[in-house]
RNA sequence: GGGCGAAUAACUCAGUUGGUAGAGUGCAACCCUUACAAGGUUGAAGUCACAGGUUCGAGCCCUGUUUCGCCCA
C-alpha cells in the first residue's frame, strides 16, 4: 500500500492482528536471560484459567504493557512473565457443573478420573483470557507462559510445603474455620466476603434448672442452639450479680448447660447473656477453649443438621432455623424477635453463606513470615505506590491470623503428607515415599486435601523463573522491578508473595508495588452483571480499537482514584488516534516529494519551537511513566500531539512544505516534521502500540519496528534540546495570532476576508519576533498586509487587541461595527481591571512587600505593570472608538 | 467500632515545596481553509463541600462538621 492511498480515517480492524503476529513472530517480546543489558522484570498477576477479560484485567495489563514497552524503548532487557493460575475452587465448580449436565457427580468418578476431566476442560476451554490479553496488545514473553499446576511450579510448591513443615511453620490442627457447604471445603478468612444483611435478633429464654425463670439469650442463628454448651455472662453485669443458678436447660432438648462468666461478653448487646456454640462460632470457639467447654458439631459438611439437633436431625440449616423458631414459639421460649442488620459471611466463589465450623485443617503459622514482610516495606526494600496503601498493608500484617491452606477439593496441589497405616508415622516429603521410614510398611496413605490456590501463587515471582533450580533467569531477573495489581488482592496475593519471596529467596520479590484503582461505570458504580452495567473490553476494542481503549484507561488512571469508564470517553480517544493518523497522512504526503534534509541554519522559529516542545514532552512522558503517573504521561503526549504539533506546527509549516519558501526550506521543514512525528510515535507507542507501528512502517524515513526505536531524549540528539527562550518567543506569536482571530470572530468577519493589520510596540524583542515571523502571522491570521511600527497614531476604523507590549490594529475600513468593538473592548477592560484590582491589592499590602520573597514581589510587580499598560492601551482605543462613533 | 479515600466548570477529572484555578467532554457562534467534520477557529461557564485556624497570601497546611465510597472487625 503506497502512502498516498493512506485511508482518510484510521480503521484498526486487521491492523492490530497483523502487527501482533509480527511482533510475536519476530521475537520482540522475548527476554534474554543471558544479556548484559539492564534487566527489567514484571510478573503478571496470573488470571484464573476460568476467567474472561474484564475491565480490571484490561487496566491492569494496559499499565503493565505501558511500563514494559516504555522500558524496551529505553533499551532495557524486559521480561514480562505471563501465565495463569489453576483457581482450585472456581475451576472445580465449573467442571462439576459440566459433569452435572451429564448427570454425573464428582463422587461417581475416581479422583484421578475427575482430575483428568479438569485437565481436559483446561486444554479445551481454559485460559481463554490469554488470547484476550493479546487483543489488548500485551507484550508478554509468551514462550515462557506458566501455569500454577505446571510440573516445575508444582515442584516449587512441594519444596516450600516441606520446608515450612520442617521449620514448624506449617501445622495441622483442630480449629474453627470457614466452611462452604456448597463447595464443601474450608476457606481462608480472606476468602469470605462479609455482606451486611437484614436479619432478626431472636430472644430465647433458656429456663433455669430449677424450673423458675431463666436466662434470655439473643441470637441471629437459633439453629446453632443445639450446639450450645454454655451460656456466658459478663462478671461485671449488674443484672446477673445475684444470680445463684449454675445451669440452664437447653430448650427443645433434654440437655443442661452451665452458666459461665467471661469478660468477653458484651453487656450492651442483646440481653447480655450469650449462648456459647464452640463448634459453630469463632468467638465462641475461643471462649470454649478458655472454659474447657465441650464442642458439639450440629451442622455437617453439607449444611445439614446432625443428630445433635435431636428431632431436627436431617434438616437443612436454614430450614431448621425456621422449624426451631416455630417450635420455640409454640413452647413459649421465644421471647421476642427484632430486626437487625448484621454482617454475614459468604463464599467468595459461590456466594453461599459460610458456616463457621470446627475442623481439622492445615495452617501456615504466618506471624514470623509476616513480620519480615512488613519490615521489608518499612525499610524501603519494597515500595508500595501510592504510599497510602502501605498503611493498610501494615495493618493487616501486624494483626495477621494463621492461614488455613487445606482445601477439601481435588483440583490443586495435593498436600505431600503421608501416614503409615501400620505404625501411624507421618511423613512429609518432596518425593512420594514408597515405604514408611519408621516401620518399612508399604501401606502409606496420602493426605487427600489440596492446597489453597494462593499458596502456589505466593511463589509466582520465583517459581515461574525456575526455582527451586538456580536458573540463569532468576539470576538475571529476580527480584523483579515492579508488581502491578489492584488493591483487592493486596492481602491475598501481594502480602503472601512478600512473605514467601523473602523466606525462600532471601530477597523481596519486587522493588515496587503499584496499586491501581478499580474500573467502575461512568457513574462510579461497581460494574456487576446484576446491575447490567458491565462493559465488555473486547466489545470496546472491536468498536474503537485497542489503542483508543488503552489510551482511555491510561488517561483516567490517576493514582488513588477509580477509573470511570464510558464508551463516550473511548470515542474521544478514538478521535485522538485518528488525529495522529491524519497528521501522519499529511506528513507522508509531503515526504513523497523526497526526504528531508536537515540544515540547522535554516530553522525558523516554529521548527525550533516544536523541537523544544518535543523534547520537553518526551521528558515529561518518560518521567511520568517512571513514577507511575500514567494519566499525566498520557495527557502530556495528547496535549503535545494535538494542540502543539497538529494545531500549531503543522499549520505553521504548510507554506514551507508547499514550496512557498524555496526548495531548501521545504527540505528542512520536511526533515523537522518527520523527526517530530517519529518522536511522537515513539513516545505514544507504549500507549498505542498498533497505530504507531502501522504509521512507523509507512514512513519512508524509518526502518524496522517502532519497538526497536529509542525513546526520544534519552540519547543525545542535538536537535532535541529544550530552549525556553524560543518557547517564549513563540508564545508571543501565538498571542498575536489569537488576538487577531478573536477580533475576526467577535466582529463576525468571514474567514475568507483578508485583513490588513498594523502593530505597534516599544519592545525591541517583540518587534523583532513579529518582523521575523510576519509570514507565519499573515498566513495563520489570514492577513494581506502586516506592518510593525513604533507607537504612534492609531489607524482609524480599526479594532484593537493588546498582547504583552504589542498593540494590534486590525483595519476594518467600512466594515467596522463601532458598537460591537466598544462592547468588545469594554469586556477586555473589565477582565483586565479585575485582575489589576487583585494584583494591586497585594502590592498595596505592606506585609506582603515585607514578608513575601523578593522574587514573588518582583513577579507580581511585573504583572501589575503589564496589566496597567494593557489597560491604558485598551482605554485609549475605547476612547478613540467612542469618539469616532459618537 | 477501627482505618483509608473523595467533595474543584453542566459532566468526568487534573492541580507538583502554599504565590491567587486548568484539561477533556458537553454547550454556543462561525467555518467543507487542498491531513483530519472522528475536523478548524472563537467564546461562555467555578464562593475549589461547610465552619474555624496558621500565613503577607490557602484548592493545597492544621482542627472540626456534613455528604458519599471502599477496606477491616
Automatic annotation (TrEMBL):
What NCBIfam families does this protein map onto? PRK05729.1, valS
Q: Where does ATP bind?
A: 529
* GN (gene name): valS
- Role, per record: Catalyzes the attachment of valine to tRNA(Val). As ValRS can inadvertently accommodate and process structurally similar amino acids such as threonine, to avoid such errors, it has a 'posttransfer' editing activity that hydrolyzes mischarged Thr-tRNA(Val) in a tRNA-dependent manner.
Quote the subunit structure annotation: Monomer.
Coiled-coil segments on the chain, per record:
815-884
Q: Which GO terms describe its cellular component?
A: cytosol
Residues annotated as domain Aminoacyl-tRNA synthetase class Ia: 18-566
Principal EC category? ligase
- Motif 'HIGH' region covers 47-57
Q: Which family does it belong to?
A: Belongs to the class-I aminoacyl-tRNA synthetase family. ValS type 1 subfamily.
Q: List GO BP terms, alphabetically.
A: valyl-tRNA aminoacylation
Locate the Methionyl/Valyl/Leucyl/Isoleucyl-tRNA synthetase anticodon-binding domain: which residues?
607-755
> What are the alphabetically sorted keywords of the record?
Aminoacyl-tRNA synthetase, ATP-binding, Coiled coil, Cytoplasm, Ligase, Nucleotide-binding, Protein biosynthesis
Q: Name one Pfam family in it.
A: Val_tRNA-synt_C
> The motif 'KMSKS' region: which residues?
526-530
Which InterPro entries does the annotation name?
Answer: aa-tRNA-synth_I_CS (IPR001412), aa-tRNA-synth_Ia (IPR002300), Anticodon_Ia_Val (IPR033705), M/V/L/I-tRNA-synth_anticd-bd (IPR013155), Rossmann-like_a/b/a_fold (IPR014729), tRNA-bd_arm (IPR010978), tRNAsynth_Ia_anticodon-bd (IPR009080), Val-tRNA_synth_C_sf (IPR037118)
Q: Which Gene3D superfamilies match?
A: HUPs, Isoleucyl-tRNA Synthetase, Domain 1, Valyl-tRNA synthetase, C-terminal domain, Valyl/Leucyl/Isoleucyl-tRNA synthetase, editing domain
**EC numbers, comma separated:** 6.1.1.9
Stretches assigned to the Valyl-tRNA synthetase tRNA-binding arm domain: 817-881
GO molecular function terms here?
Answer: aminoacyl-tRNA deacylase activity; ATP binding; valine-tRNA ligase activity
Q: Which reaction does it catalyse?
A: tRNA(Val) + L-valine + ATP = L-valyl-tRNA(Val) + AMP + diphosphate
Name of the protein in question? Valine--tRNA ligase
- Record comment regarding domains: The C-terminal coiled-coil domain is crucial for aminoacylation activity.
Amino acid at each position: 500500500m503506497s502512502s498516498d492511498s493512506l485511508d482518510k480515517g484510521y480503521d484498526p480492524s486487521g491492523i492490530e492482528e497483523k502487527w501482533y503476529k509480527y511482533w510475536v513472530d519476530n521475537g520482540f517480546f522475548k527476554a534474554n536471560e543471558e544479556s548484559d543489558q539492564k534487566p527489567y522484570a514484571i510478573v503478571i498477576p496470573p488470571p484464573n484459567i476460568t476467567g474472561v477479560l474484564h475491565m480490571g484485567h484490561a487496566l491492569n495489563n494496559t499499565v503493565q504493557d505501558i511500563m514494559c514497552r516504555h522500558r524496551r524503548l529505553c533499551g532495557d532487557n524486559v521480561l514480562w512473565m505471563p501465565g495463569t493460575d489453576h483457581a482450585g475452587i472456581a475451576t472445580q465448580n465449573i467442571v462439576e457443573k459440566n459433569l452435572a449436565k451429564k448427570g454425573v457427580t464428582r463422587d461417581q468418578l475416581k479422583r484421578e478420573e475427575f482430575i483428568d476431566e479438569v485437565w481436559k476442560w483446561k486444554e479445551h476451554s481454559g485460559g481463554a483470557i490469554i488470547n484476550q490479553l493479546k487483543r489488548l496488545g500485551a507484550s508478554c514473553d509468551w514462550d515462557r507462559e506458566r501455569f500454577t499446576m505446571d510440573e516445575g511450579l508444582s515442584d516449587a510448591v512441594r519444596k516450600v510445603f516441606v520446608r515450612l513443615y520442617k521449620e514448624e511453620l506449617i501445622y495441622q490442627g483442630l480449629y474453627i474455620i470457614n466452611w462452604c457447604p456448597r463447595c464443601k471445603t474450608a476457606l481462608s478468612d480472606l476468602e469470605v466476603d462479609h455482606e451486611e444483611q437484614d436479619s432478626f435478633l431472636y430472644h430465647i429464654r433458656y429456663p433455669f434448672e430449677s424450673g423458675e425463670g431463666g436466662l434470655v439469650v439473643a441470637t441471629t442463628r437459633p439453629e446453632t442452639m443445639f450446639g450450645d454448651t454454655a451460656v456466658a455472662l459478663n462478671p461485671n453485669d449488674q443484672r446477673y450479680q445475684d444470680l445463684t443458678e449454675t445451669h440452664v436447660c437447653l430448650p427443645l432438648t433434654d440437655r443442661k448447660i452451665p452458666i459461665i462468666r467471661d469478660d468477653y461478653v458484651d453487656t450492651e448487646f442483646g440481653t447480655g447473656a450469650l449462648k456459647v456454640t464452640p463448634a459453630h462460632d469463632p468467638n465462641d470457639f475461643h471462649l470454649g477453649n478458655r472454659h474447657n467447654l465441650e464442642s458439639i458439631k450440629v451442622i455437617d459438611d453439607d449444611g445439614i443438621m446432625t443428630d445433635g439437633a435431636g428431632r431436627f436431625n436431617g434438616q437443612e440449616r436454614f430450614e431448621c432455623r425456621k422449624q426451631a423458631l416455630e417450635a420455640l414459639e409454640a413452647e413459649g421460649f421465644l421471647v421476642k424477635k427484632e430486626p437487625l442488620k448484621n454482617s454475614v459471611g459468604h463464599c467468595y466463589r459461590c456466594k453461599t453463606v459460610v458456616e463457621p465450623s470446627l475442623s481439622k485443617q492445615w495452617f501456615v503459622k504466618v506471624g514470623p513470615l509476616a513480620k519480615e514482610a512488613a519490615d521489608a516495606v518499612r525499610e524501603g526494600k519494597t515500595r508500595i505506590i501510592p504510599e497510602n496503601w502501605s498503611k493498610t498493608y501494615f495493618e493487616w500484617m501486624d494483626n495477621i491470623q494463621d492461614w488455613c491452606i487445606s482445601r477439601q477439593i481435588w483440583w490443586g496441589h495435593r498436600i505431600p503428607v503421608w501416614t503409615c497405616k501400620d505404625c501411624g508415622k507421618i511423613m512429609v516429603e518432596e518425593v512420594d515415599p514408597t515405604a514408611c521410614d519408621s516401620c518399612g510398611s508399604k501401606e502409606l496413605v496420602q493426605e487427600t486435601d489440596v492446597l489453597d490456590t494462593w499458596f502456589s501463587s505466593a511463589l509466582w515471582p520465583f517459581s515461574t523463573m525456575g526455582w527451586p533450580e538456580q536458573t540463569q533467569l532468576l539470576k538475571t531477573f529476580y527480584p523483579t522491578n515492579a508488581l502491578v495489581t489492584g488493591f483487592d488482592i493486596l492481602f491475598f496475593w501481594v502480602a503472601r508473595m512478600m512473605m514467601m519471596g523473602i523466606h525462600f529467596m532471601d530477597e523481596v520479590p519486587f522493588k515496587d508495588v503499584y496499586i491501581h484503582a478499580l474500573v467502575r461505570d461512568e457513574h462510579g458504580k461497581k460494574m456487576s452483571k446484576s446491575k447490567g452495567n458491565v462493559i465488555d473490553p473486547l466489545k470496546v476494542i472491536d468498536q474503537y480499537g485497542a489503542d483508543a481503549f488503552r489510551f482511555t484507561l491510561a488517561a483516567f488512571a490517576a493514582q488513588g482514584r477509580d477509573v470511570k469508564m464510558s464508551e463516550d470517553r473511548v470515542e474521544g480517544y478514538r478521535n485522538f488516534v485518528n488525529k495522529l493518523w491524519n497528521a501522519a497522512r499529511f506528513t507522508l504526503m509531503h515526504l513523497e516529494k523526497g526526504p528531508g534534509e536537515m540544515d540547522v541554519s535554516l530553522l525558523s522559529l516554529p521548527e525550533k519551537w516544536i523541537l523544544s516542545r518535543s523534547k520537553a514532552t518526551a521528558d515529561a512522558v518518560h518521567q511520568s511513566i517512571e513514577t507511575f503517573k500514567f494519566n499525566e504521561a498520557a495527557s502530556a503526549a495528547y496535549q503535545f500531539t494535538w494542540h502543539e504539533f497538529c494545531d500549531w506546527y503543522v499549520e505553521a509549516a504548510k507554506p514551507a512544505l508547499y514550496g512557498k519558501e524555496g526548495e531548501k526550506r521545504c527540505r528542512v521543514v520536511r526533515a523537522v516534521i518527520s523527526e517530530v512525528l517519529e518522536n511522537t510515535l515513539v513516545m505514544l507507542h507504549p500507549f498505542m502500540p498498533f497505530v504507531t507501528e502501522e504509521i512507523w512502517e509507512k514512513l519512508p524515513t524509518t526502518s524496522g519496528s517502532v519497538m526497536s526505536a529509542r525513546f526520544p531524549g534519552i540519547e543525545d540528539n542535538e536537535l532535541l534540546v529544550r530552549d525556553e527562550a524560543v518557547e517564549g518567543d513563540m508564545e508571543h506569536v501565538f498571542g498575536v495570532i489569537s488576538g487577531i482571530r478573536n477580533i475576526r470572530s467577535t466582529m463576525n468577519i468571514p474567514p475568507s476576508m483578508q485583513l490588513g493589520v498594523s502593530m505597534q510596540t516599544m519592545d525591541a524583542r517583540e518587534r523583532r519576533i513579529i518582523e521575523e515571523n510576519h509570514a507565519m502571522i499573515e498566513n495563520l491570521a489570514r492577513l494581506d498586509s502586516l506592518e510593525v511600527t513604533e507607537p504612534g497614531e492609531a489607524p482609524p476604523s480599526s479594532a484593537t487587541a493588546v498582547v504583552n507590549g504589542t498593540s494590534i490594529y486590525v483595519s476594518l475600513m467600512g466594515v467596522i461595527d463601532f458598537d460591537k468593538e466598544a462592547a468588545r473592548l469594554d469586556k477586555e477592560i473589565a477582565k483586565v481591571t479585575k485582575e489589576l484590582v487583585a494584583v494591586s491589592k497585594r502590592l498595596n499590602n505592606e506585609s506582603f512587600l515585607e514578608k513575601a520573597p523578593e522574587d514573588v514581589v518582583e513577579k507580581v510587580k511585573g504583572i501589575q505593570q503589564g496589566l496597567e499598560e494593557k489597560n491604558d492601551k485598551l482605554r485609549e482605543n475605547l476612547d478613540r472608538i467612542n469618539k469616532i462613533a459618537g
